[in-house]
Specification:
Length: 385
């Protein structure tokens, strides 16, 4: 809504960036909004939209070469914001596919691996997943128990992963495992013997998305399965930072959609013979939402410009991820309150967004982890243990 961009943040975006925003917004309006309530209710991920996203250039869009779109960090962020205004689950698909699986291959893979997988993944013809988190280790990946042992012909992979997005529909899994030479990444075809993916359900959050438990029961991999450039935790962390960056934008999409929903509702809903929006307490809620959305979007744009300039530091990503998730979930909850009892139905988006943001707030680093990253930065004292 025009009156909601009170700081005129659109003036900070180029004509190409605004055109991309309008294109993705139109896709969300046409393909996601009319269906998302049913998808969420039925815990259904619409696989048919994957190739449509590929055709729009949304998969691996910040990567260059190998059939990838080669768009800027800001353009990628704008797309993530618009997708999450539809639903976090759909934005998460683009993040897992592009920021995690494709980035791992693009950044750390061999030329053969890049040429084999990236073009099909960019088109949405091949789906990837990213196996890092384990049943016993989320925030502390250094303690991972999944192990790969070298053999004469390659590797044997054993262990388990949890909360792995897309795994049951993926054709290739990027799996991180401990080896004698430290943490290494492997490309694992999901139809290989010994690999299994079990969908985690039922869920109260991210219902229009897929998360799985993975098991590797002596999976035999050729020597060519290893990502040659990734040694140590720097490999997976570099991918996580790409995903965390997208969340900075995405969370504001969910917040903006919730705000716009209740602004319209409060102008139309009558209580005591006047619209809800005419009451001071309602206006206070709406103003507080708008302020945080504007500030969070400004933070996202600034972070994106730094990323495009090559000056963005990981601690700065933590600023955006921590702040924007924390504020977005509060906005969605306050929006639900304005809706009253109607707000607990799937006719309105805020509670669905709030439930989804419980997951977004947790994955790619919890509030606590990002708080301690910032705490270590400003004090010089690591406080993780």
């Amino acid at each position: 809504m025009a009156n909601s961009d009170v700081l005129n943040l659109d003036a900070l975006l180029t004509a190409d960036e605004l055109e991309l925003r309008d294109t993705v917004r139109a896709f969300v309006d046409a393909r996601i909004r009319p269906n998302i309530a049913a998808w969420y209710e039925d815990a259904f991920f619409p696989v048919e939209v994957v190739k449509e996203m590929g055709a729009l250039g949304l998969l691996g869009m910040h990567l260059t070469g190998y059939g990838c779109p080669g768009r800027s960090a800001v353009e990628y962020g704008i797309a993530e914001m618009e997708l999450e205004a539809g639903d976090s689950g759909l934005r998460t698909f683009v993040s897992v596919q592009g920021s995690l699986a494709m980035t791992a291959i693009h950044k750390w893979g061999s030329e053969e691996q890049k040429n084999t997988y990236l073009p099909g993944m960019a088109r949405g013809e091949v789906i990837g997943c990213f196996g890092l988190t384990e049943p016993t280790a989320g925030s502390d990946p250094s303690s991972m128990a999944t192990r790969a042992v070298r053999t004469e012909t390659g590797w044997v992979l054993s262990g388990a992963k949890r909360w792995i997005g897309l795994a049951s529909i993926a054709q290739v899994a990027v799996v991180w495992a401990s080896t004698e030479e430290g943490v290494r990444g492997f490309l694992v075809p999901t139809d290989i013997e010994g690999f299994s993916a079990t969908v985690i359900e039922p869920k109260l959050s991210m219902r229009a998305s897929i998360q799985c438990d993975l098991k590797f029961d002596g999976v035999r991999l050729p020597a060519s399965a290893i990502l040659p450039g990734a040694k140590g935790l720097r490999g997976p962390f570099s991918c996580l930072n790409e995903a965390r960056y997208g969340i900075i934008w995405g969370a504001m999409g969910a917040a903006r959609d919730s705000y716009e929903c209740v602004l319209k509702y409060s102008l139309e809903r009558l209580q005591f013979d006047k619209p809800l929006a005419a009451y001071q307490l309602t206006q206070q809620k709406l103003v507080n939402m708008l302020l945080e959305i504007q500030k969070g979007t400004l933070l996202a744009i600034h972070t994106g410009r730094m990323k495009d300039a090559g000056t963005l530091e990981p601690v700065q990503i933590s600023v955006g991820k921590l702040n924007n998730c924390r504020e977005a979930i509060k906005i969605c909850r306050d929006a639900r309150a304005i809706l009253g009892g109607n707000g607990i139905t799937l006719d309105y988006s805020p509670l669905r967004h709030a439930n989804n943001l419980e997951s977004v707030r947790t994955y790619e680093g919890t509030d606590e982890v990002h708080t301690l990253i910032l705490g270590s930065h400003i004090t010089g004292i690591p406080a993780f243990r």
